[in-house]
Structure of Branched-chain-amino-acid aminotransferase:
Amino acid sequence: MGVSFDKIDGVIWYDGRLVPWADANVHILTHGLHYASCVFEGERAYGGKVFKSTEHSERLKASANILDFEIPYSVAEIDAAKQLVIDKNNLPDAYLRPIAWRGSEMMGVSAPANTIHLAIAAWDWQSYFDPAEKLKGIRMCVAEYRRPDPATIPAMAKASGLYMICTISKHKAERAGYADAMMLDWHGRVAECTGANIFFVKDGKIHTPIADCFLAGITRATAIDLARRRGIEVIERRIVPEELDGFTECFITGTAAEVTPVSEIANWKFAPGKISEQLMADYSAEVQSKGKAAAA
């Protein structure tokens, strides 16, 4: 299983100062733990530079506002703190997890005066991969749970509570031998995966669901931009499962997934091909070039 995440050696930025990894703790009666008043980001550093750091910090602040609290640090301060964590831990290629939550002064649904905390952790996560191996594509099933109606949840926040059904769905998929699960929306249309956005290819064009009940990911936006730079048309629209027979390629995007081809979703088969391979290469070049430029 590897080293337990509470036993990693290093430092974590916690409420404005660097603390030893083992000391970055919260009380058991923390509001964020009991009532999911917690927002976070998933980010990557390449070559010692956090990719699209400011966009992530802006989204973190916006997510907190949606959950009715204000993170007591500016976007620039959060950006600087993330870079400090990367530098102090000597992590040129890393995954970062900024997280903000309500503290433990009051235990109950209503806790408007609780302290808002912010922490930033990072750990080693090499970005290099074998393109030939990745191009085989991952296998996915269809999740039992659906993304809820955005009138019932704060869908545009990257909030911890919204990932409960993702964890359940991914565990079930893995037990069945799959890598992930595709989630439908509350109408039964294609939405996303448990932690990544999804794209399909047909006749040289890319199709992807409208992001109105799930996050329009930062990696998703990067992939769309890269495709359009290549002159590939990207169509954001409603997609129903019955259409999946007509798509030739499928890939997912996310901070962890980067650009990952899909070979199978339940009974639907895909052949990872030219567009998936091109976007994998373009995304790798994009993030690596940003890291090298920052180091220069």
User: Anything to note?
Assistant: Helices lie at 31-35, 53-66, 75-88, 131-134, 164-175, 218-229, 274-295. The radius of gyration is 19 Å.
